[in-house]
Amino acid sequence: MAKTSKSSKTDNKRPNVDKIVKKVNKEFEKTSGQIERLVDDAFKQLDSLQNQIQEPVRKLMKEIDELREREMKRFHDELDRRMEEFQKIQDSVMDRLGIAQREAKRGQEAVTKSLEQETRKTAKTAKSAGKTTAKTASKAGKKTATKAKSGARKAATNTSASARKTGAATKAAAKGNDLSDLTRIKGIGPVTARKLQGAGITSINQIANPTEAEQEKLNQFSSMKGFSNWPDEAKKLIG
Description:
0% strand
């Protein structure tokens, strides 16, 4: 009788345990679902946050690239301008050195020639005046030599001045008639002139009255400073 009562109590407790387990499982599944939804929401927010961060970063990188390109272009333009100025200074120095050397050589030749002429003249005079005393001849020789040196210096000075004027006039005339010298056009330096020649523009006529093909070549230099004035300047030079 006692065993039956105990067994009956155990059977009554089992349904209660099953209910508790089911309830716990149900709550666990419910909690798991909530956790999964929270995790999904967190990932969505993280993706949105990444997009919000990446967009300004991409924009910033684009602005940096544009700024770098502008600065590189400005640097190259400044470098070209400095190179043109340096080329002009170098050409001017070389021209002056060449002129100075030619003038010195001509002056020296003029002095030597003048001294030779005066020496021959003095020797001839001394020979014809053989009856003159040695003292008088010596004084005359010194006076003649002094006069010869003075005359040589004056002749050298006049010759040098004349050579400078003649050389400058010749150079100006040659440069004034040279239509292949693109640097005569205002705004075109030596560096730009070489670039134009490399593109096939070798004459001022091609800039003043370009063909369609030549105009297309010239348009490659439209970003250069003063480009729009080149044709008018070229026409002025042609006349």
